[in-house]
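Lay summary. Proteins are chains of building blocks that fold into shapes, and those shapes determine what they do. In this project we predict the shape from the chain. Here is one chain we studied, written as its sequence of building blocks.
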Amino acid sequence: MSKHQHTPASAAVGIEHAIRMLEGRWKLVILFHLFGGRKLRFSDLEHAIRMLEGRWKLVILFHLFGGRKLRFSDLERAIPAISQKMLIQQLRQLERDGIVARIVHAQVPPKVEYHLTKWGQSLCPALDELLTWAERQPSSPSASQSAKASRPPRA
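And here is the predicted shape, written in a compact code that computers can read:
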């Protein structure tokens, strides 16, 4: 578990930061080779990262973690900065990838609920580990170099 208590939005920001640190084909190639003992294909790693790309997917996932079932309107209220069109797009992509399931209840007015599939729920520990990893990032070497350069010379 990460050392901080996160809201869905702050956790998603942390995970996005971690993913940005890993972005770029060559960083993935390096990581792929570091995990060389595992039976992984590079294309599988790229595919996994692509499934989580997008500003809102991680925020949606964090709202659905823990077995929660939310109606579309609940997600709209929980994520006020997202447009209706973008929420629909992101949910459809997550559903297509098998991460989110959509339940349509036969009633008037229509009732649609979203929840994580068992496979989608299994992302929780992995994303929590990624968030913890990002929180442990040491200060960047370039920042310490620039701090040294700005110091006056010793007498």
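What the prediction tells us: Residues 143-155 have pLDDT under 50 and may be disordered.
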